[in-house]
Every structure is written in C-alpha cells, then in structure tokens.
Design goal:
Layout lengths: L2 E3 L13 E3 L2 E5 L6 H10 L2 E5 L2 H7 L6 E4 L6 H4 L7 E3 L7 H7 L1 E2 L2 E5 L6 H11 L7 E4 L3 E5 L3 E4 L6 E6 L3 E2 L1 E5 L7 E2 L6 E13 L5 E6 L3 H9 L2
Parallel strand pairs: 2-7, 3-4, 3-8, 4-5, 5-6, 8-9
Antiparallel strand pairs: 1-2, 9-10, 10-17, 11-16, 12-16, 12-17, 13-15, 14-16
C-alpha cells in the first residue's frame, strides 16, 4: 500500500490532490451511518478520510482519520484537538458540498463513501447526483440497506440468483442486459418515465449503458463483487 497526505495548507487549487493512494479508501461523512458498515468498508479500504463532521463519527468509534477535508463548520472542537493539525484541510468553497470537496481532492483506486445519505432525502439525492460528476474514480455510496454506484459503460458482475438489482437512470438512456429477470433491451429508461428498480439477478450479469449517467443499486452483501467489477480485481 502506497499513499500520502500532502500538506497543501488552506484552499488548495481544485486540481490539487490532498490524498493519493494506489489502493482503496474509505470516506466518512457526517450523516447517519451504522458503524458495522464503516468496519465493513475499512476491512477493504483501510485508509480513512473524513468529510468535515465525519471526523466526529470517526473519533466517537476510536478511529483517527488520516485526513479531514471540508469547510470545517461541523467538526467539533474536542474532535479537532485529537487530530494532528497537518491532517486537517480547510476548503472555503461554499458552492460545493463536503462530499464534492473530498472527491475533487482524493486520488484512489476506489472510494467507499459512508455517512452521505440517511434521514434527509435531499442529502441522499444530492449525494447520488454527485456520483455522476466524478466518473473517473469508482465511488460506492453506502445507504442504510444498500449500496449505489455509477455504472461503467459495460459492467460484468456475478451475483447470487435472486439478488435485487436496481437501475436508476439520471438521464434518458437505452442499454442492453443479460442475467436479469427483466431485460432492458429495447427500452428507454428515464428518471421521469421508466426506471429499473427491483429487478432480479438470474445469472452472471452483463450490462451495457452508454453515457455514464446511470446508477446501480445493490444490497450490502454485493459490496465485494461490485468493488471487483468496478476495479477489475
């Protein structure tokens, strides 16, 4: 594992990377999350970055983040006092969420993101929207019951028969599928007309969806196969 946290000071340029790694990374936000899911993520992606108030959650469970990134309006003083100053990176930009601030400044093989969904539906929808703006790095977003990620143009994944497989287009899209109970071939999926939620796996799944504007939602048990499918492992 090779990684480092750069000491860029306040307000690095948007193109600068604060955290770089050749492996997987866990990104923890300040929203509601179950810590068993955090432990699940850390077992696969041991580098821990907190988005602002996510540092409070990390410290509450005995985890000191390798970096904290955000506008720092939610991190508690007692939390800040326990984290080395050179790990805390203040980003003053008020036109982006802390989730966006982090994704713009992290270079990783894949990111497992927790604490960005939860009780408020607007936060969940905003986090899903952010995924479409960062297609270059695989990001798997954890919800309370499932995971969500941006579909590559071709996805091949082997899941147990009967696994719930949901497809949610952010824009109108036509694609092809194999291994789903309800094939999408010949259909136009659209967020305001026809979506592909609650489909079901019948065998190895191959999905072709052009444009990188479609979200896939799977149960938590599918995390490792999803990570392998997105990274080629």
């Amino acid at each position: 594992m090779l990684w480092f946290v750069s000491r860029l000071g306040s307000n690095p340029p948007m193109t600068a990377r604060i955290v770089q790694t050749r492996t997987f990374l866990t990104l923890l936000g300040g929203g509601s999350t179950q810590f068993r899911h955090v432990n699940q993520a850390l077992s696969l992606a041991p580098i821990l970055v907190a988005a602002d108030g996510g540092a409070n959650t990390a410290l509450a469970h005995g985890k000191v983040p390798d970096a904290v990134i955000g506008d720092l309006d939610s991190i508690e003083d007692k939390t800040r006092a326990k984290i080395p100053a050179d790990r805390i990176h203040y980003i003053a930009d008020q036109d982006s969420t802390d989730f966006e601030k982090c994704l713009a400044r992290i270079e990783a093989r894949a990111i497992l993101a927790l604490g960005f969904t939860g009780a408020r539906l607007d936060h969940t929808l905003a986090a899903c929207s952010v995924l479409t703006r960062f297609p270059d790095t695989p990001v798997i977003l954890f919800g309370e019951e499932d995971i969500c990620f941006l579909a590559p143009e071709r996805l091949e994944i082997d899941l147990p028969k009967g696994t719930v497989f949901s497809i949610f287009p952010m824009v109108p899209v036509r694609g092809k599928s194999m291994g789903l109970r309800y094939p999408i071939d010949g259909l136009e999926l659209s967020p305001i007309d026809r979506v592909g939620t609650s489909n079901e796996v019948t065998g190895p799944v191959t999905l072709e969806l052009p444009g990188r504007n479609t979200l896939i939602m799977l149960p938590h048990d599918a995390l490792e196969p999803a990570l392998a499918a997105l990274t080629g492992d």
